[in-house]
Amino acid sequence: QVQLVESGGQLVQAGGSLRLSCVVSGRTERSITMGWFRQAPGKEREIVAAISRSNGGTYYTDSVKGRYTISRDNNKNTLYLQMNSLKPEDTAVYYCAAAHRAFSSISYANRATTYDYWGQGTQVTVSS
């Protein structure tokens, strides 16, 4: 099994920045592809960004391109999400996820159903 624990979510003003972290433990070798998802009240869970363990390839949903950066430190078994220029519409619970598979293109790693392990989520609230 793989355990994922997120941290870093908090209340921030619009235009501010946050960095989320996700520590991976257990069978860490199973976290081949990792992603960040978010879910706002009344909305479906959506992909934010994903990253490949093997080649570092990344994917971002259009609404966060240029503002968010996903990265991973395999030595520390930690996934990060740097979020800049935050907007009120970024308010959501952010989830870390891991998939025990690689994808021919990281852009295919954009569906929640393809991930095997999930964290408990961390709340990000952006005030206007």
Q: What is this entry, summarized?
A:
By secondary structure, the protein is mostly beta strands. It contains no helices and eleven strands.
Topology:
Layout: E1 2-7, E2 11-13, E3 18-26, E4 33-39, E5 46-52, E6 58-60, E7 68-73, E8 78-83, E9 92-99, E10 117-118, E11 122-127
Parallel strand pairs: 2-11
Antiparallel strand pairs: 1-3, 3-8, 4-5, 4-9, 5-6, 7-8, 9-10, 9-11
Protein described:
The chain is mainly β and 128 residues long. Helix content is 0%, strand content 49%. Strands 2, 4, 5, 6, 9, 10 and 11 form a seven-stranded mixed sheet that branches. A four-stranded antiparallel sheet has the order 1-3-8-7, with no helix packed on it. It starts with a strand and ends with a strand.
| Run of helices and strands | EEEEEEEEEEE
Number of strands: 11
Calculate the mean pLDDT score and round it: 95
How would a crystallographer describe the biggest sheet?
7 strands, mixed
Give the strand content.
over 45%
**How many whole angstroms does the radius of gyration measure?**
13 Å
Give the overall form.
globular
- Strand-pairing-aware structural class: mainly beta
CA-CA gap between termini:
40 Å
Poorly predicted runs = none
Percent of residues in helices: under 10%
Number of helices, where a helix is a run of at least 4 consecutive DSSP H or I residues: 0
